[in-house]
């Protein structure tokens, strides 16, 4: 079973609210793979920062644009925030050492996942952010591992157009 839908996000505050609302869902599982897709400025990092903050990350939450990966350990979870925009080749993921941390044991928030195609594990949740006039539109796709979880399916069924 796969669930999918879309949400209109009025502004950055709505994107942040959605990111924060996802935090309790991450606490219900030890790990998984979230792909964050969209053009530059679509809100991928905004959503990721809000999610990390809601999980309890204190201090600055750096964008992994130049480091490629920023690890966090909030609320007893392991979270890897990756930004693959600067990856020249998907094979570079092997050199980062992140592939040793499988998604079932850590949450991965991956911006620009298409740059890691063929090496990156498949998503459990795919979020695609785009501009829709003066606002943003989020298309989401919940893959089978999470779609069968009643908390995850309920959350997304309540947050769609």
Q: What is the total tally of β strands?
A: 7
Structural class call reads: alpha/beta
Which architecture does the CATH hierarchy give at level 2? 3-Layer(aba) Sandwich
CATH superfamily: P-loop containing nucleotide triphosphate hydrolases
Describe the main β-sheet briefly.
7 strands, mixed
Distance between the termini: 20 Å
Strand content: 25-35%
So what's the CATH class?
Alpha Beta
CATH topology: Rossmann fold
Rounded Rg: 15 Å
- If strands are numbered along the chain, what order do they take across the biggest sheet? 1-7-6-2-5-4-3
N to C succession of SSEs: EHEHEEHEEEHH
What report would you give on this structure?
Helix 1 crosses helix 2. The longest helix is centred in the first third of the chain and has 16 residues. The chain contains 5 helices and 7 strands. Strands 1-7-6-2-5-4-3 form a 7-stranded mixed sheet. The chain has one domain: P-loop containing nucleotide triphosphate hydrolases (Rossmann fold, 3-Layer(aba) Sandwich), CATH 3.40.50.300. The model has no long low-confidence stretch (mean pLDDT 90). The chain is 29% helix and 27% strand. The protein is α/β, with parallel strands linked by helices and 161 residues long. It is globular, with a radius of gyration of 15 Å. The two termini are 20 Å apart.
């Amino acid at each position: 079973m796969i669930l999918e839908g879309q949400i209109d996000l009025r502004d950055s505050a709505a994107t942040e609210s959605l990111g924060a609302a996802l935090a309790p869902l991450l606490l219900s599982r030890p790990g998984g793979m979230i792909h964050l897709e969209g053009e530059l400025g679509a809100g991928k990092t905004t959503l990721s920062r809000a999610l990390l903050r809601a999980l309890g990350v204190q201090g600055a939450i750096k964008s992994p644009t130049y480091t490629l990966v920023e690890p966090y350990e909030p609320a007893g979870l392991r979270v890897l925030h990756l930004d693959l925009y600067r990856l020249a080749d998907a094979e570079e993921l092997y050199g980062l050492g992140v592939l040793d941390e499988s998604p079932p044991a850590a949450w991965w928030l991956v911006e620009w996942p298409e740059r890691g195609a063929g090496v990156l594990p498949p998503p459990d949740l795919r979020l695609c952010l785009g501009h829709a006039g003066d606002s943003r539109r989020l298309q989401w796709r919940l893959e089978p591992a999470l779609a069968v979880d009643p908390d995850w399916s309920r959350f997304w069924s309540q947050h769609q157009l």
